[in-house]
Automatic annotation (TrEMBL):
It comes from the Archaea. GO terms for molecular function: GTP binding. PROSITE patterns: G_CP. Pfam families: MMR_HSR1. Residues 1-151 form the CP-type G domain. Keywords: GTP-binding, Nucleotide-binding. The gene is rsgA. PANTHER family: GTP-BINDING PROTEIN-RELATED, GUANINE NUCLEOTIDE-BINDING PROTEIN-LIKE 3 HOMOLOG. This is GTPase RsgA.
Length: 242
């Protein structure tokens, strides 16, 4: 990571607009600062929370950095992002490293800038393995990188909620799913998969969801583990109506 940043001229830090604080990587920003590289912070997935909410969150963050708001699925913010890269490079030929947490949409942002799908993307965290190059114009070379999580490890439940660890990689998906239900209850969501969750104990809620989704063990008992993985996957994929 250090070498990639040092070898590039501009750094695009991709963060998930739904969790800007949690998916911001201060270590990357520090490396960039020490190497005197300009950082552009890209709030991606704004389609999932709305650009205005993302802007508000950015103001509260005290970023003191160039920020751009994009959605790769709705293809918005591309012109502003191109302009920011152009200004950061002062029109010279540049290498731009695209860095950030797993699953924030680094490869998707490259495809957005490129205008077509050159990088493979996936809802599985840790999908991009090595560095990959994509030329988007005569002057701009983008470097896709594998997602990195800072060494000050977050617990797996938190990583699951921000999408940095896939459901299949979790030791206890049930804990993460319950935390997600709690989070959604706190945000005033009334039902999940047709199950009324308002005021419901989270463990009970997950059992009901398993039953509703037909996730059953032998003997007809709810398969909460399977239902938890399913719910987390939909959440990580950014499904709007859970
Ligand atoms: N709703 C929404 N989903 C997005 C957006 N950008 C990316 N995604 C989804 O987020 C997931 C991760 O996208 P990637 O581009 O593979 O993310 P990455 O940062 O390259 O991931 P790694 O290579 O695993 O670190 C995929 O399921 C994408 O479809 C966006 O703007 N909006
Ligand atoms: Mg990738």
């Amino acid at each position: 990571m250090r070498r990639t940043i040092a070898g590039s001229n501009v750094v695009l830090e991709i963060i998930d607009a739904r969790f800007p604080e949690q998916t911001r990587n201060k270590r990357i920003e520090n490396i960039a600062r020490r190497n005197k590289k300009k950082v552009i912070v890209v709030f991606n997935k704004v389609d999932l929370i709305g650009t205005e909410n993302a802007r508000k969150a950015a103001q509260e963050m005290d970023l003191k950095k160039e920020t751009v708001f994009v959605s790769c699925t709705e293809k918005t913010g591309t012109a502003k992002l191109r302009k920011a890269i152009f200004e950061a490079s002062r029109g010279k030929s540049v290498k731009v490293s695209v860095v950030g947490y797993p699953n924030t949409g680094k490869s998707s942002v490259i495809n957005l800038l490129k205008g077509r799908k050159t990088m493979r993307t996936s809802s599985t965290a840790g999908f991009t393995k090595g560095e990959q190059y994509a030329r988007v114009s005569e002057k701009i070379l983008l470097i896709d990188t594998p997602g990195v999580i800072p060494l000050t490890e977050m617990d797996e439940t938190s990583l699951a909620l921000i999408g940095a660890r896939s459901p299949g990689q979790l030791q206890e998906p049930e804990l993460a799913a319950e935390k997600l239900v709690k989070l959604l209850q706190g945000r005033g969501k009334e039902e999940i998969c047709g199950v009324k969750i308002k005021g419901l104990d989270t463990e009970k809620a997950m059992e009901e969801i398993a039953l509703r989704k037909g996730k059953l063990k032998k003997g007809g008992l709810p398969d909460v583990k399977a239902a938890s993985k399913m719910l987390l996957l939909d959440w990580q994929k950014g499904k709007k109506n859970l």
